[in-house]
Amino acid sequence: MKERKILLPIKVVSTQERDWVPPSSGGGDPKMFGDVNQDTRESLVSEVELVNKHFQDAFKKYKGAPAVARVSLKKKALAKSHRPDAILNKSTCPIIGATSFGELLVSVQPHGLENLAGQLRTTRTKEGIAAVSTIQKIAPYTTSEALGFQSIQDLSKEIDENPKNPRPLKLRLFYHKNPPLDAHLLAAFKQQAEDLGIPMPKSIFYAEGMKIYSIPEIKRKHLASLASFIGTQRLTTFPRYQVLKTASIFLRPVDIRDFPPPQEGTEYPLVGLIDSGTEPGNPFLSKWIVDREVYVPDNYTDFAHGTFVAGLLIHARLLNGNNPLFPEVSSKIVDVVAVPEKDDLTEPQLMEILEDVLPKHRDVKIWNLSLAIPDKICQDDAFSDMAMFLDRLQDQYGVLFVVACGNYEELPLRSWPPEDLGEADRICSPADSVRAISVGAIAHRKGSNSCVEEGDPSPFSRRGPGPVYLPKPELTLCGGNCDKNGDYLQSGIISLGKNGGLAEDIGTSFSTPLACSLLANIGGALSEMPSMNLMKALVIHSARLSSTKLTTFDLRYRGFGTPSDLPNILTCEPWAATLIFEPEIFPGRAFEKTPFPIPQCLRGPQGTVKAEIVMTLVYNPPLDPSFGPEYCRRNIDISFGTYDVGKDGKRKQEIKIPSEPEDINHRYEENLVKYGFKWSPVKAYRKSLVRISGEQWRLYVKMTDRKEFFSNEPQRIALVFTILDPERKQPVYDEIVRWMNRAGWITNDLRIKEKIQVRV
Questions:
Q1: Tens of pLDDT along 61-104?
Q2: Which of 25, 91, 609, 691 has the most CB atoms lying inside 10 A of its own CB?
Q3: Residue 340, preceding bond cis, omega within 30 degrees?
Q4: Rounded to two decimals, what is the model's pTM?
């Protein structure tokens, strides 16, 4: 007989006053990045004068309206401590944003440019000279930057793509963070519209600090004027969204054994499904649909994709032969019919639907978005507008979007290990949302001609990283397998098709509802609804515990891995202890827990430690759309290691648990962002310790804000910490619980509803 697994409650550790300490000190004299001689100064002054000359006509025409210049920093001067704000400030040209690694945007007016030129010529302070030494180049923000990767001709083709239904232009206006200046710029924009003979563009609210306008029925002759306008940050068209569908294969009719109704007396969590809608009158689905919101006329509907996704939200494992790679969870659904048959869903239309439906269904905390813009892959240095809109909604309504990372469809599809496809197979918008969880796909089985083995990333699953090298996707779950031509018979995912049938299909559309239902059930299984930070941290932590050592290469394709099933996410076994910390980190204060419990059963005869430690950190930093790659305005760092007395009589922390992946060891700011996930709101740490000496251990958490960000608001974090016996034998859990009780730590069990049995 198989031995019954003992499941123990995760411990939630409360914050105590003694846990707050002053942060470790830093700073010092400003650093120089090259000689600052008269030639250096005059070269930069001449660039400032060229900026003034470039905008002189606009300054005359639009009195009081500011322009924008680009300030490129030297590669080794990207850290916030080197910011040249000693000369770029309110009296000259203040920093208002960023466009890429090391390129700042500054607000410019004639008097400010004059003052900046004077500062560059005459500053003699240490801070001023150091600031000058960081600057590589100063240049105007021009039409080329406003158009991005497009030309006027490209934009003309997009507008004329459908003459009967021309695409409106999308214009993003600069935000100068100065109400009088922004008012002047808006007045100039109105004047520009009048001069061109077009109606005043309609404002569309994406997020705080984003000034985006829709300009309908534009003519080709207007494009150059709009692109070169003093306030235009970006000029493009609004993208269209598609559900990520292929062509499902009908298998056979459904019967009650394939898709049983909800169990009497069982409470199921709710998931919001924003898709093409589920098949009306489907007898198997109808009892699982709690409510329905319809935004598509009947004659434009095709329910195949939404029905398939819905089936997986409800009975993913049962429909797929009880394969243990599928989570054994079920959810009820709020069905939002949003995507028409021809996938002609514009960004403003999708935004209107989300703005309408979220406040109607406040009880829904998890929303499934299996849609994307196939031709809009994410960029290194910018988040998509839609991603930032989703971030704003998630903050506003306290919800979590679970987003498909997109399907790569160019043939032949990749094998594993993959060949280098450049950027072609990178994730699509809006999977670059910072607050959302993005989901990729792995293969759950292998057919005779399949490209990859079971457990490998699916041949079509788009890969990360996200913008600024943020880890995206965070999770990968079953999405099917196929051959190099995309054929997937007997290697795809099975769910409900149209007309009461079972169907087979592949796609990240279908790995996404697996993650979505699992997250909803985490919230539903707990006595109190957890924070979104904690919900994300628990499922990502489970993925790390279920996976092997993580490399930078694997992270791009697998994310943090594939989570385990619900009971394993919410409990411990005797040879491991999982602790949850959710402190608020205050500016000017650090958080520590010391001495930190290391069980005696994991120590050797000389006191050395043999253990495995896994930590997952999730937090929701303040966001600012003006700052491009610096969109996340706050960083949290975790340090865990020994904290013993050194030869100088003072305690010193030695980090023993590095960031994961471990191949992160780069010095300068650009590489810390690229490879160290600095500023990333999701971080993982892991290490197998063997014969590590150290009597006292400490957990230390500190916060760093961006240079231009000022806030006294605390930062709430969720940290999930597991220490385990690599041999799965020692009574780690019981020893840690006894230690915490003796040390006066205030702890509680993570309260789980009765459905999951644990030993309390």
A1: 999 999 999 999 998 888 878 899 999 999 999 999 999 888 99
A2: 609
A3: no
A4: 0.95
